Amino acid sequence: MTEQVIDKASSFQAARARLFALAYRMLGSRAEAEDVVQDVWLKWHLAATQEVQTPAAWLTTLTTRTAIDRLRHVQRERASQATGWLPEPWLDEVAPSAEELALRAAEMSYGVMLLLERLKPDERAAFVLHEAFDCDYAEIAKILERTPGACRQIVHRAKERLRRAGAPLERPDPAAHAQIVERLRCALEAQDRVGLLRLFGEAPEVVSDAYASASAPQGLPTSTATPVFATREPAVAGWIEKVTSLARHARHAEIVSVGGATCIALICEGEVVGVIDVSTGGLPSDSPKIVALRAVTSATRLQSANRALGRAAIIQLLARIQREAVVSVAVRRDFPVDVYA
């Protein structure tokens, strides 16, 4: 394919959503992913494309390599920080963009996204390309400049490391998962600590991001100074105290979809102030239990969530909640009530 035949702008635009989804899966940050895609566009715009046979493959290769370089840099930054780091949650939009549709096609749970931080950049690239984007080992080999056999081993090692770390590589039953998330939401809104503890397994892992939010609504508790990895019930109970406090100040806990998974958004004054994701497990004969809980409360990390959900959507949501509350009170006949008060 000659340079005259290739329409660079059209070729890039056709691949852009997939490139963005790939960069986001690699970096766990929308801003970092946008920077990578912009860098790829500039390189593509300046590149001589006489020998380019397949623009999409060329762009995928460049995006992967650029994301690997960027990941090496940000991993050093994250390792040097005294506070912890969690991936940026991506709330699914009601009217999805092209980027979100591409991301949904490459679904990967938030729990897996978190544990991908334990992989080396090359391992993460190979795992993401194979598991999320259905690339075969020959394609991955060209991108990483390895042999197909070596790439197969890289993906195998990555899976083993993730399994040992407890990554939920297999999706839970959607109905059962949604049910336990709804029970968690109800317990949070009711401030039911006993009910919350009943939802957890024997040795759950509980993780919260560590950034105190300077712009959090007044009275809203900030996140802890370090990530919390709780393995004993007293520790879980102490951390749940913080979560219930956050939910109390947030006023409302609502079900949202993050990367295709059912999660909980904590809402205060028209803003998302927290996103909670859980992994469930247990024997088939048992009721599912929460084996891991992750909470993102950093205002910076929740910016895209607020953009996706939108203030108007949140206001409508709160109005619906208020209407439902009014109706539930109005049906009571044992005391007078002004439903329009």
UniProtKB/TrEMBL annotation:
Molecular functions (GO terms): DNA binding; sigma factor activity
InterPro entries given in the database record: ECF_Sigma-70_Domain (IPR052704), RNA_pol_sigma-70_dom (IPR014284), RNA_pol_sigma70_r2 (IPR007627), RNA_pol_sigma70_r4_t2 (IPR013249), RNA_pol_sigma_r2 (IPR013325), RNA_pol_sigma_r3/r4-like (IPR013324), WH-like_DNA-bd_sf (IPR036388)
Chain coiled-coil ranges: none
All residue ranges annotated as the RNA polymerase sigma factor 70 region 4 type domain in the record: 113-162
Segments crossing the lipid bilayer: none
Superkingdom of this protein's organism: Bacteria
GO biological process: DNA-templated transcription initiation
Domain RNA polymerase sigma-70 region: 14-76
NCBIfam families: sigma70-ECF (TIGR02937)
Protein known as: RNA polymerase sigma-70 factor (ECF subfamily)
Organism: Paraburkholderia bryophila
